[in-house]
Amino acid sequence: MTDSTFTIGTTAGYIKTWLMKNYCILPEDKEHLCMPKYRLMFPFMWGDRFIGRARRMIAGQLEPVLLNSYKGHFMPVSGLTYIEECRILISADFSARMWTLGGRYLQTIGTFKPWKKIGADGQSLADDFDYTIPPDIKRIASSTTLRVKIVHLAPLAQFYRVCRQVLSGGSFPKRLTIKQLQKQAQKDLIHIDHSKIYGSRLKEPILGHHYNVPERTTHPKDIKFDTTFPHIPVYQHLVMPQPNPIQVPEVPDDIPANIKVEEEEI
């Protein structure tokens, strides 16, 4: 797309940017590449704790250099357009989306959401620009795609604090081991939050005077039978609903009335 980069779209919806400098050029004619410059432009080139799928596919490949790889669409990419004046990349499948050259999502063209103002120059984007992630990509994005898009969503204060700590001779924040995480989780389960019980035990009645708890007795209830009759009608003392007459369905006219079902022997 630019004088030194080449951007392509794949059938899987990925957008890849390659560095075409020194590709298919004799060794004596090659130019020096300032890789820190490209690392500032493309977060994809930052160091990873584990190698992603995009880097595994180009393992051992010296040229061309893969500068960026991220999932931009759910469907195959059908078109790419690069605007040189403002350094904005527009990709399309069934929708047209705007990206920065580094892979930051700007907005989708033709939606009901308000239009985000973008200057004529690529450097005029404000530091507090509302960078987001497309909802369909957020659900299926890989770790590499999320790293390219979320690295710009992190607060700058946190980024500067970590850089200041490393430059002053410190190290990155320590990561807890599995045993330490298990101990911390156990402490969280044992810990009692006294603020929710007002610092003291609850007093009777716990439910207040708005609900009367029925008395629980272990002795059977005394049942009084009517002994005035020569026999005791036990079923008369049972609380049962009134019997309702059973409605017999009518026999259809197509079925003869003299048909009988033979009883089966079990």
UniProtKB/TrEMBL annotation:
| InterPro entries (alphabetical) | WD-EF-hand_domain (IPR051242)
Domain of life from the UniProt record: Eukaryota
Keywords, sorted A to Z:
Repeat, WD repeat
Q: What is this protein called?
A: Uncharacterized protein
Task: Say which species the protein is native to.
Answer: Dendroctonus ponderosae (Mountain pine beetle)
